[in-house]
């Protein structure tokens, strides 16, 4: 399982942006894979693999290919149709041409994490560019036969409005990803004080988040998505919905 923390004031550390360190990092990672692999039964199939969204902008295609070759050499990658090799993609930092390379490496699932796309928001200056990049990325995934394209959204981000979130949902519905996940933003709470009662502002955050989720349920189910619960929505033909119908 992959734990996905959401801190919306997160900034990638300098090491994650410094591609000059990528080759040394990849070399050490390949060596670590070689040390860990003997602890596992070689006959066991690897059905699922996930790389986070920092992998692609940090590792050059050649280094990513080296990493995948090392993994396939040390572990037995299944050739089954159930194979689920996913990678996180930041549409703002990945060119659609890179999607073809990812497909060639065996990836068949893309996870896009989108920010608020409200054109009126003052905290994000390139909403239009991000929206267009998301459209292009999803289209490229379709072109190269990715089995699943998932989009992760968030609600409860400071300054988020119903109108802005509805605009974001409209773009998502237009792109028709296979899965949409909506997670509550993990905000750092203020330091509690015994003297300070619960403020009205903190209560408003909870109310706003509930309204945002209700809007998502309405918009996505109206667009034909099935609500699986746990803030996850899928198209009727998606593998998760098929599994639910089969009782799996």
Briefly characterize the structure.
By secondary structure, this protein is an alpha/beta fold. It has helices at residues 14-17, 22-36, 55-58, 61-74, 97-104, 127-143, 162-175, 200-222, 239-245; strands at 45-46, 48-51, 76-77, 84-89, 109-113, 148-155, 179-184, 226-229, 232-234.
Order of helices and strands: HHEEHHEEHEHEHEHEEH
- Cα gyration radius (Å): 20 Å
Spatial sequence of strands, sheet with the most strands: 2-4-5-6-7-9-8
- Low-confidence segments: 1-11, 200-207
**How many alpha or pi helices?**
9
Mean pLDDT score, rounded? Answer: 82
**Cα shape:** globular
Helix content: 40-55%
Distance between the termini: 18 Å
Instruction: Tell me the β content.
Output: 15-25%
Class per helix and strand makeup: alpha/beta
Largest sheet: 7 strands, mixed
Q: Please report the total strand number as a whole number.
A: 9
Describe this structure in words.
The chain has 248 residues and is an alpha/beta fold. Helices cover 43% and strands 16% of the residues. It contains nine helices and nine strands. It has helices at residues 14-17, 22-36, 55-58, 61-74, 97-104, 127-143, 162-175, 200-222, 239-245; strands spanning 45-46, 48-51, 76-77, 84-89, 109-113, 148-155, 179-184, 226-229, 232-234. Residues 1-11 and 200-207 have low confidence and may be disordered.
């Amino acid at each position: 399982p992959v734990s996905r923390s959401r801190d919306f004031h997160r900034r990638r550390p300098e090491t994650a942006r410094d591609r000059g360190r990528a080759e040394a990092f990849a070399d050490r990672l390949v060596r670590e894979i070689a040390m860990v692999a003997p602890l596992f039964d070689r006959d066991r199939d690897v059905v699922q693999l996930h790389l986070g969204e920092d992998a692609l902008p940090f590792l050059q295609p050649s280094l990513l290919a080296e990493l995948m070759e090392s993994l396939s050499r040390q572990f037995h990658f299944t050739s089954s149709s159930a194979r689920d090799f996913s990678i996180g993609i930041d549409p703002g930092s990945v060119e659609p041409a890179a999607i073809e390379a990812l497909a060639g490496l065996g990836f068949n699932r893309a996870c896009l994490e989108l920010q608020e796309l409200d054109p009126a928001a003052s905290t994000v200056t390139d909403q239009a560019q991000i929206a267009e990049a998301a459209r292009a990325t999803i289209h490229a995934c379709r072109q190269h036969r990715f089995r699943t394209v998932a989009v992760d959204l968030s609600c409860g981000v400071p300054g988020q409005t119903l109108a802005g979130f509805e605009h974001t949902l409209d773009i998502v519905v237009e792109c028709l990803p296979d899965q949409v996940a909506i997670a509550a933003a993990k905000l750092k709470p203020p330091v509690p004080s015994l003297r300070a009662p619960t403020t009205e502002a903190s209560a408003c955050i909870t109310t706003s988040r509930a309204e945002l989720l209700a809007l998502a349920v309405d918009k996505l189910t109206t667009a034909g998505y099935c609500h699986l619960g746990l803030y996850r929505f899928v198209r009727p033909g998606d593998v998760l919905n098929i599994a639910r119908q089969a009782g799996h």
